[in-house]
């Protein structure tokens, strides 16, 4: 994620609109058409603005305890028709409950809780994570 970790700061990603545009540019450069966007943790700052503005460009959305869910209203989430799999580990007691509370306003959502997994549930329970993800992907049109 630009501007995080050891990556250099990028002026464009300072605002939600800039992060949305950045992600839009990445998807265009990759030539992706109706991808499924998987968004763990800090990537929520990019994925959520994109979802709310361009959710119709996505075949699906998989938030994994993303940050930034409080930045949007229930009404904004209710307008999104993108099929969504809300994934989280039951040992993530800080960010996951907050994200779930906000993201459950997405009308086309389902939830997969990975038992015994923490915030990085895909690392803690990779087989369970991949099975939930594959089940979701197979149900998409």
TrEMBL record:
Keyword match Cytoplasm: yes
Gene3D superfamilies listed in its UniProt record: alpha/beta hydrolase (3.40.50.1820)
Location relative to the cell: Cytoplasm
Main location: cytoplasm
Keywords linked to the UniProt accession: Cytoplasm
GO cellular component, one term: cytoplasm
Superkingdom: Eukaryota
InterPro entries registered for this protein in UniProt: AB_hydrolase_fold
Protein name according to UniProt: ABHEA protein
Annotated source species: Rhabdornis inornatus
